[in-house]
Amino acid sequence: MTETLAAFHFLRPEWLLLAVPALALWWLERRETDAASRWRAVMDPVLLARLTVGGDHRRRLSPGDLLLAAWLLTALAVSGPTWRQVPSPFAQSARPAMVVLKVTPSMLERDLAPTRLDRAREKMADLLALREGAPTGLIAYAGSAHLVLPPTPDASVVDSMAQALAPDVMPVQGDALVAAVALARTTLAEAGQGGSVVVFADTVPALNTSADGGPPLFVFAALPPARAAADPALRTAAAALDAALIMPTIDNQDIEGLARRLTTAGPPPPAPGEAPRWQEAGWWLTPLIALLVLVWFRRGWVLA
């Protein structure tokens, strides 16, 4: 819902200016048709209501009111409200993804055989196989974050680079998760093709930051399934990063579900050199406008 509200805008906002003459004409029409307006300044309101035919009863909705509503809805419809992008027919169908891999001594624990790091690399290889042809990049982090590969459709290169990563090659020890996520989002933004970020980590630090928007984020827990389900820190970090937490399974259900979500997560990639295309939603208002116009065909409605 937050992403929808943030993306909501009008394709032709200048048409909203039609509301100004609509309100002005509605106000003038009500003023001119109120025959008793001149008497209100000199006569008691209660007496005036008794002396006026129909003075104690007013219709809640007048023809002018419905005309105003139809006019405003028409102006809203033709202004082009939208909140959803549509893929370009010339754009690549596969959406990029940045894989962020934690490379620390804790990832060498053997409670997830053979090690947490090896299992994370196996899951990553399965994900690359399911996303065949989709651009995938790689970032390694410990106490600092480093770009290993920008998004590339060559899955074998990504897998070979991931296999070469080990804690002893990282220059600084620690847990720079926030910096790694920021680097991944920056890399995707510079590519201008949309995409998502997938973090493979066993533990996460206590985060004092909140999500600042950007590509969709997924955190894959590189832990034994029972331990991952009982770790509240993972859920807390995922909520702070506005990320979806992927719980590990002994089969490929976790990776298959993640691959399906990556195919639709975030806005579709635009074609190179082409501006984003937005799906217009103003036509949803046409049935309501037609219903308001239909009331005008009621016999005696305007002159009643």
From TrEMBL:
The organism is Azospirillum brasilense
Query: Which is one Pfam family of this protein?
Result: VWA_2
Q: What is this protein called?
A: VWA domain-containing protein
Q: Which InterPro entries match?
A: UPF0353/GerABKA_families, VWF_A, vWFA_dom_sf
- Superkingdom, natural source: Bacteria
Q: Where is the VWFA domain?
A: 98-202
**Lineage, broadest ranks:** Bacteria, Pseudomonadati, Pseudomonadota, Alphaproteobacteria, Rhodospirillales
